[in-house]
Amino acid sequence: MELEIERVGVNLIVRIDGSLDLHTVDTLRKRIDEKLTGEVGIQNMILNLKNVDFIDSSGLGFIIGRYKQINNHGGKLKIINVNNSIKQVFELSGILKIVDVFTDEQEALQAV
To answer: Which residues form the STAS domain (predicted)?
Structure first.
């Protein structure tokens, strides 16, 4: 799993390459939390899942945890570039009721 984190204004864009599962979420959580606590003024997060090929319940928990973390500080979490199999998992889990999904970064940045 690879991770790229970029700050764009008050937004944190997180690009994940690989799986969101039990073996990767702890590393993801730590790296993102370091950014959120280490930098002042980050309000929103955009998760780019273009290169995510698998997600399990740990991955869903990771997303819900980041949603709560950002939401508790008045920000928004947006997800972009979701493939059909991951979108189906999102639909079955109900995560789409709390998190908006967009096709690309520009669209998500305009929505925050």
So the answer is: 1-112
Q: Is residue 52 predicted with pLDDT exceeding 90?
A: yes
Strand order in the sheet with 44-55: 2-8, 11-20, 44-55, 77-80, 100-102
Written as six digits, the tokens of 94 are: 């109900």
Quick check: 35 and 44 in contact, CB under 8 A? Answer: no
Q: Are 23 and 9 in contact (CB under 8 A)?
A: no
pTM of the model: 0.93
Residues 75/67, Cβ–Cβ less than 8 Å: no
Angle, helices 25-38/57-71, rounded to nearest 10 degrees: 10
pLDDT value at 102 more than 90: yes
13 confidence band (pLDDT: 50, 70, 90): very high
The alpha helices in the chain, defined as continuous H runs, are 25-38, 57-71, 84-93, 105-111
Q: Which overall architecture, per CATH, does domain 2-83 show?
A: 2-Layer Sandwich (3.30)
